[in-house]
Amino acid sequence: MTYLAEHLHEVPVLIIPCVEAPAVQGTGPGAYASRLPATWSLMLALRARGVGSAWTTLHLRYEQEAAALLGIPEGIRQAALRLVVYYTGYDFKPAKRVPACERAYCNGWGQTR
User: Fold this and answer.
1) Taking the complete model, does pTM exceed 0.85, yes or no?
2) In the β-sheet with 51-56, what is the strand arrangement from edge to edge?
3) By the 8 A CB rule, do 16 and 66 touch?
4) Which residue has the higher pLDDT, 50 or 78?
5) Which of 25, 26, 50, 35 shows the shortest CA–CA distance to 82?
């Protein structure tokens, strides 16, 4: 966390997924689970194009300050912070994917169409 905080200014693209919802006491960012599928799809799409991304909620302790800086209106809650970067190493490549028909089952485990 410390390294990320010290180098956050070097990340070329930052995405803050938001949700229109009232503040929920005692549950934190996990209360807004509907944003997970959309941001996970973004991660997969980036990865398929050879771009890396990471998910953090580190900035949420400063959610009000971030909202003021970015002009995020009242009633809009920040869910996370997505960092988008080009990988600089040699072994990053789009992930290999198992065909869905080998992992998606219908009407019971191991039953494919």
Assistant:
1) no
2) 13-15, 81-86, 51-56
3) yes
4) 78
5) 35
Tokens of 40: 């996970």
Check if the beta carbon of residue 19 is closer than 8 Å to that of residue 77: yes
Instruction: Supply 34's token pair.
Output: 């509907």
- Helix/strand/coil for 20: strand
* Tokens read off for 76: 């809009």
3-state secondary structure of 34: coil
Domain 2-103 fold is: NADH Oxidase (3.40.109)
Is the pLDDT at 95 greater than 80, yes or no?
Answer: no
Task: Report whether pLDDT(67) > 90.
Answer: yes
Burial (CB count <10 Å: 0-12, 13-18, 19+), residue 56: middle
For the chain, which residues make up each domain, given as ranges? 2-103
